[in-house]
Design goal:
Number of helices: 2
Structural class: alpha+beta
Distance between the termini: 39 Å
Strand content: over 45%
Helix content: 25-40%
CATH topology of the largest domain: ATP Synthase, domain 1
Largest sheet: 8 strands, mixed
CATH class of the largest domain: Mainly Beta
CATH superfamily of the largest domain: F0F1 ATP synthase delta/epsilon subunit, N-terminal
Number of domains: 2
CATH architecture of the largest domain: Sandwich
Order of helices and strands: EEEEEEEEHH
Length: 144
């Protein structure tokens, strides 16, 4: 029996369907979820999320959030989530460069501003990693 997975953001349902396995970036480390998993409610950090259906693996970049696992049902409430094939590498690279520039050249920041810039940098790095992995596996140009 497969898992029913939903990946939801405030803007949309990113994925809803049956999967064989989901791997999430939990705040305590990467967690693989198979059918009949023990109940878990956990926070998620920005990172790669993978779903496996048969031999096919689909990659997502998520910006943190929560996962609720109840047996054969997994609900991910993500701050942001994108399928690898939706990610614009050029835009993600610009966001990464912008965040790095702010960290290097901005006068001393208060903790809240520093946290926001570091979070933006992490999100852009995850998006780039996921998009490049997807394109490399499919033999596509990763510089676009």
């Amino acid at each position: 029996m497969p898992l029913h997975l939903e990946i939801v953001t405030a803007e949309r349902t990113v994925f809803s369907g049956e999967v064989d396995m989901v791997t999430v970036p939990g705040s305590g480390g990467v967690m693989g979820v198979l059918p009949h998993h023990a109940p878990v409610l956990s926070t998620l950090r920005p990172g790669e999320l993978h779903i496996k259906v048969g031999d096919e693996i689909t990659y997502f970049a998520i910006g943190g959030g929560f996962v609720d696992i109840q047996g054969d049902r997994v609900i991910i409430l993500a701050d942001s989530a994108e399928r690898a094939d939706e990610i614009d590498i050029a835009r993600a690279e610009l966001a990464r460069q912008r965040a790095q520039e702010l960290l290097r050249n901005t006068p001393p920041l208060d903790k809240e501003d520093l946290f926001k810039i570091e979070a933006a940098l992490r999100r852009s790095q995850v998006r780039l990693q996921v998009a490049r992995r997807y394109r490399a596996q499919r033999g596509l140009d990763t510089s676009a």
